[in-house]
Amino acid sequence: MSIHENRTVNCPKCQHEQNITIWSSINAALNPDGRNKLFEGAINHFKCDKCQYESLIPVPLLYHDPDRKIAVHYFPPESMKKTEFLNQFDIYGKFIVANEVDFDVPEHLMDVHIVFNMNELVNYIIFREMLLEFHQQKQSKTDPGLN
Ligand SMILES: [Zn+2]
């Protein structure tokens, strides 16, 4: 599922108060529009209605695509200063999926790719989608049933 909530924030420049949607997760299969917004740079992007000031809202964002088995997690680089953040990884940088959740963690969420940059998040998704397409084409060319 995709998770987002509405929040009231003050513009860091002019203090103007406005409502924005903060996304903490996007499921591409259930919410293709969330994927489009991400590719347009419109996710967790603040733009002041009054003074036009723009900035990225530094909140973690999980992107996952169950159909293509892609899972990428963005974290703001500042997160690294926090113990609770570091606690989520093993020494090799692998994300430790919480054991205490009361449901079966889907397979694609067992291996989450971590990024610290929103552009890298988008590039990594493009990479995985292209890779999938590439291998599927290779597969169909070598499949004698299709020749
Ligand atoms: Zn403003």
Task: Provide the structure class.
Answer: alpha/beta
Care to count the β-strands? 7
Strand order of the largest sheet: 1-2-5-6-7
Bound molecules: zinc ion
Q: How would a textbook summarize the main sheet? A: 5 strands, mixed
The SSE order reads EEHEEEEHEH
* N- and C-termini, Cα separation: 40 Å
How many structurally independent domains? Answer: 1
Shape: globular
How would you explain this protein's 3D organization?
By secondary structure, the protein is an alpha/beta fold. The protein has one domain (3-146). Helices cover 25% and strands 26% of the residues. It contains three helices and seven strands. It has helices spanning 32-39, 83-86, 118-142; strands at 3-10, 17-27, 45-47, 54-56, 61-65, 70-74, 113-115. It is globular, with a radius of gyration of 18 Å. The site of zinc ion (ZN) has 8 residues, from loops.
List strands and helices in order, with pairings.
Elements lengths: L2 E8 L6 E11 L4 H8 L5 E3 L6 E3 L4 E5 L4 E5 L8 H4 L26 E3 L2 H25 L5
Parallel strand pairs: 2-5, 6-7
Antiparallel strand pairs: 1-2, 3-4, 5-6
The site of zinc ion (ZN) has 8 residues, from loops.
Keywords, separated by commas or semicolons:
147 residues; alpha/beta; five-stranded mixed beta sheet; two-stranded antiparallel ribbon; 3 helices; 25% helix; 26% strand; globular; binds zinc ion
